[in-house]
Design a protein that fits this description.
Blueprint: H1 6-79, H2 100-134, E1 146-148, H3 152-186, H4 188-220, H5 229-235, H6 254-278, H7 286-317, H8 321-327, E2 329-331, H9 332-338, H10 340-349, H11 352-357
Antiparallel strand pairs: 1-2
The structure holds protoporphyrin IX containing FE.
Length: 367
Amino acid sequence: MTVERTQPGTEGRKQRKLRRALWTVALVLGLSMVLPLTGMLLTSDTTGQALAQQQQAQEEAAAVAKEEQQRRDFWRAAREGTAGYTAVSGQETNVLIQSEGEVWRAVREGPIMRYGGIGLLAVLGAIILFHLIAGTVKLEQRSGRTITRWTLFERVIHWYTAILFIILGITGLSLLFGRTVMMPWMGKEAFAAFANVAKPVHDWLAVPFAVGLVLMMVPWIKESLPKAYDFAWLKMGGGYFDRSKHPPAGFVNAGEKIWYWLLFFGGIVLLVSGFFLLFPNFGWERGTMQLAHIAHAVSGVALIAFSLGHMYLGTLGNQGTLEGMISGEVDELWAKAHHNLWYEEVMKHGNPKEASRGAGAGQPLTT
Ligand code: HEM
């Protein structure tokens, strides 16, 4: 009897092979399912991390923006002059920024410097031009006899105040225009050395000048009051354009009266504003100091411009005028030509200025 032994063995092997193949396919399939799943797990983890990072970045950006906005609000409030808290005691110490300071700087560096500078140069140019065209008003003849015009006190106080005015004018202008005009040609070091002297000189001479100005102006107030004939003098242009006629004038003429009153009111503005600037420790607010500075600069520059005209007319412009302010005496013919009404008065009633010296008291002058 033959036993078919190969059949069952082959069959078993086939089945085992099939099972192995099935398991392999299942494993491959399973793995191919699981692997992407692990990928998904991994990517889902990094996406979460990225989201968290993104959120953190957004929060940080929002915090920075908030901080910047707070800083902007703070400086805006500071620029509006909002008062804050400070432990420092004193005027306005709780106001960090006073924005009007920028307006002040713009006015100082703009109109004051521009128009002030142009104005001064224009006056200087006009005086030179006038002198070149019209020339000196000559004293054609001298009588040889003199009249006392200015007392010793008047002359001393005039020159004392004038010299202080000139020094204050030069130092003041150098403080205003120094940086733009002087520094470029002097150099920084030389200008710094100059300004270091100019500033204290300007400060220290202010009080002696104020005293001189008051002592000079008060006694001259009566002679400087306007009179009807002053209009005729003005209408005739002071006789500077048509020299054949002598316009009417008392002890001082209308032009001198105008200079007097400009100096009177301009001097008040100059001294009051200067007082504020000289004593900041009295607790003025910054706005007050800025106004005082502008008033001081404007009145100072204007008075310097008018003083140029005065200096010209007192020297080169009119022959014989300066000697009056030096010696106190003027020639009779000078008095007749320039101050006819005063001259007639002196001829009729004598000269009160001579009376004050004790010479010729109350005696009419003989011609
Ligand atoms: C170098 C500069 C100056 C010269 C040469 C000068 C010359 C004179 C002369 C000659 C007079 C007499 C005028 C007359 O007899 O009618 C006079 C008067 C006078 N001066 Fe001066 N002066 C100078 C500067 C100043 C300054 C800086 C001031 C003011 C701060 C001033 C204020 C006056 C006043 C108010 C009078 C009286 C009114 C008048 O005559 O205009 N002077 N000056």
